[in-house]
Amino acid sequence: MSRFERAVSPASLVISILALVVATSMTSASAASSITEQRLTAGSVSAAAIKNNAVTTKKIRNGAVTTKKLKNAAVTAAKLKNGAVTTKKLKNSAVTAAKLKNGAVTNAKIKNGTIALSKLAPSAVAALQGAQ
């Protein structure tokens, strides 16, 4: 029997293998839990590396999604909550006649004294003058 065969018993070999397995599994588990936002460099996680539906509303910081980060036509009417677009959020001249749905402007939505006679159809003016 050689020196090596006498020095390595089956019990010590099993213990050594078990210790190696435990040590390597602990290292990978602790490495996975130690990857933090602070340790990632900008651009190190690509869109291809992110699973579908992994980024949810709760995971996005307030103010993180800006106009510059949105593709053209990314925000559609279907994606907006009711009441999300308010007068304060509209640019001047953003709402044009072409963008209004037929019947969207009703008498109740027109402020008194805001429509001049020049904006009325001739038949409407004639009807108004005839009513006097």
Cα Rg:
35 Å
The N- and C-terminal alpha carbons lie at a distance of 127 Å
Find the structural class using helix and strand composition.
mainly alpha
Q: Provide a count of the helices.
A: 3
The total count of strands amounts to 0
The amount of beta strand, in percent, is under 5%
Mean pLDDT rating: 83
Low-pLDDT residue spans: none
Q: Which range best describes the helical content: under 10%, 10-25%, 25-40%, 40-55%, 55-70% or over 70%?
A: 25-40%
SSE run: HHH
How many strands, what sense, and barrel or not for the largest sheet? none
Q: Features of this protein?
A:
132 residues, rod-shaped, mainly alpha
What features would you describe in this structure?
With 132 residues, the protein is mostly helical. Helices cover 30% and strands 0% of the residues. The chain has helices spanning 3-7, 10-33, 122-131.
